[in-house]
Amino acid sequence: MSNGAGDAVGPAGGSRRQLRLAVLGPVLAWCGPEPLDLGPVRQQALLVALALRPDMTVSQQELLERVWGTEPPGTGGKVIPVYVHRLRTRLRAVGGGSPDSVIASDRGGYRFLGRDVPTDLARLNGFVAEADSAGDSGDLDAAVGAFGRALELFRGEPLAGLPGPFACAERLRLAEQRVTLAQRKLSCQLRLGHYPEAVAELVALTATHPHSEPLAALLMRALYGSGRQVEALDVFTRARHRLVRDLAVEPGEELRRVHQAVLRGDDGLLLGVPARRAQAGPRTVGGARPVRRIRNELPADTGSLTGRDRELAELLAPADPGVVTVGAVDGMAGVGKTALVVRAARLLHEHYPDGCVFVDLHAHREGRGAPAPERALRRLLRAVGADDNDEPDDLDELAASWRAATAPLRLLLVLDGASATGQIRPLLPAGPGSMVLVASRQRLTGLDADRRISLGPLGLDESVALLTRIVGGARTDREQQAVRELAGLCDRLPLALRIVGARMQNRPKWTFRQLVDRLADDEHRLGELTVEDRSVEAAFQLSYDQLPAAEQHAFRALGLSPTVEFDRLALAAMLGRSPRQAEQALESLVDASLVQEATADRYRLHDLVAVYARRLASARPAEAAAARDGVLRLYLAAARCSSDWGPAGFPTGPQLEQVPFADWEEASLWLDATGGELADVVAHATAVGRLDEACWIAEGLVDYLTRQGRYHECRAAIESVLPLADTATDQRMVSSLRTCLGIAHGLQGRYERARAWLENALEISRRSGDLREQARALGALGTVARSVGETDAAVTHLAEVAGLARRLDDDWLTGMATCNIGAIHHQRGRYQEAFDCFAAALVLAEKIGSPRMIGKTQCHIGSLQLDLGRCTEAAGVLRQAAELAEQVADVPLHAVCLTRLGTAEQQAGNLGTAVGLHLRALAALGEQTSAELEIEIRNRLGGSRVAAGDLDGAREQFDLVLVLTDRHGGAEERARALDGLTRCERREA
User: Fold this and answer.
1) pTM, whole model, 2 decimals?
2) Is residue 469 within 8 Å of 445, Cβ to Cβ?
3) What 3-state class would DSSP assign to 603?
């Protein structure tokens, strides 16, 4: 390293071994070829404070301020002469020289004698001067070379690691100089046409300087020069997003100018060369006279297009001159399809010398039917100057005449409002190099399109920008939060945004907050999104009216979905149809741009479309009730099938027949796809007055959610319906939901809250005489008592559970109670009794076929063998338990099995394996997992690290245990952590 860094400031010269200094990275010094030790970082900072101001006297007070800032050392200025003396000793040139040959003493301060000390900074300035001279003379290759040599001098962050305000300021200055030099070099490279080489370097630079507008502009120019126009526009979009998000500013004039130039294809501005598309000017046919230009029929560009840079770039990308290029843009009503194709056509029109023709096919115009293809063809023939009077009315003949008329032409044809592929095919021109842009609410899957774009709503920042442009920055700046809320309520739909923007224009006294309040109510939102002849609801109505009756029914049903996303099973349940029929309906609605495809097999409605679908559904109450019944029954089936009890284990509620899930695993996977919306299903059922269904679903989900450690969701689901459970028809739910809530609190280590809910549940179930609910509440109380060390109370509760379970002939309750009694025997050191209980519980678990109960029982057996020192047997059982826990997605159980398996491996001498297992256990924990489990894992990990000799890693874990036990309690685990720290100290001694 010393040789490379030494080269940065020049080779040693002369018979005397010369001192050299490098600051463009970590500070380094050499005497000849030998590196010098410059001492502690404060001492190095003092050297830099002198060396970067060579031949200038710096007072002791200035040095204190430069190196220590507002926190001077306790000795004050007395430390300065000490550091200077040490530096002189270290820097004195070998072979002679006085003590102050490098740092001279002046009255009141010190001065660095820089004349005979070459630095990399001096070499940098030399290379920059060389580059400037070459650039002035027009030798760009030489300038690039000199800039490159200057940049090679940087060995990382300048003055890396040095403290003090002076070093910090110089570090920033030198880092900024480095970026400036890179910009100047790259600018020269672009002028030379070295675009691909510049792209690679600029991508790295913009990643480390994400807010640099000059670098973003250079990257856009380099990508454009490389023929990558779409990527160049994407750079602007991402740069603007970062500037607005992080700095709350819009791009400056230069970056906007480059952006517009890329959109226009302005080679002169971007590359300094004649326009690449100049050849697209007036064309000749057969080498003869120029073809007559026809009129430009494009509608006016109102400037309402916002936030569509990527899509616009895709439409503007160079086309194959030998074929007809077709670009298809689809999307929901009001999303801005026409604005996009019109803007693209206006930017492209100069490249189509035979004219630009616009045809509105009226597929989505109220009171206007789509023109017959024959009528559209006659209109097109007239547009290109062909006489259509002698043309027959036959469609095929007219299409043939259109192809013949356009064969020698290079046209741009815009077809707006198309509804079907059959409308488009006869209208396609025949001239090579022509382009057709089609806008449609339908996804025209049968159309052979070269470019296919499905428009969605704008991003939030783009929506705000559109509102700002319409209403004015003075008003939007005053209410930024309300403007963002308003954009969200408009579903970021351009039509809705333009409508509310127009309303704000016409209501100068209104505030955005007032309009937000008006739109917040779903019942009135669509009515508010109307101005004169523009209406979001009317736009949706036209799309809906064109659907077949069966798809209209499906669309109305989707408005009643209790979740934002849904799949074919949900729609099938709402419609009473097969999943295959439901999928076909969904795909048709996707093609109609009324439903959005969220993933390969999940769908969603945009917010405003969902509001409209709910409004339609509310007009048919019987149909809506059937849809709600179906979808809530589906969620109930999934919840109960995924539970450890199984559907038959729930004593009340509907008998679930023709369940669409083969087993608990299939039901769990379906619930997994719902993500975090399960609590919303319960809340939805509660809100629409389906209290029994809400209670049953919440009860059924407890097992599924808690085994994944999703305790907050579990509690949220229960709490959304619990206040109304007393009014449910199924009165078992009054005690059951309290037991469920107590279980959720207990699994998170909130034992007092858990005990309160469970005792309340037990009291209610005893009053009602419900033995099963008594047993469940008692079992959970026994688990809580065992967790807090009240083993006598735990045994009492669990013995009562066992008696009730025998009366009920309930193997699940019997197995649960027996296993927990075994855990108490284990805790008390009664190992044989514990093993007998676990063996009996395992027989019951295998009898009822519950993989989760089998895994839990095996975990207890493995833990018992671990305490008996049988590490081999323990490892085998715990490994099986871990596999079962992973299979049933029981996150806490999986983590417990892994960490105890890690201890078994540690006892067997496999220390690396042990540490890895503990780390896997930690990684499995979620944010909602109980602190008790994390404490156990960290203590076990600490023990394995001690055994492996990693004492620092062990201390870290034990210290974390002490912090966690301070917050959450756990005297036994705290004692283990303290013992671990003592073992660390002994190992070190």
Assistant:
1) 0.67
2) no
3) strand
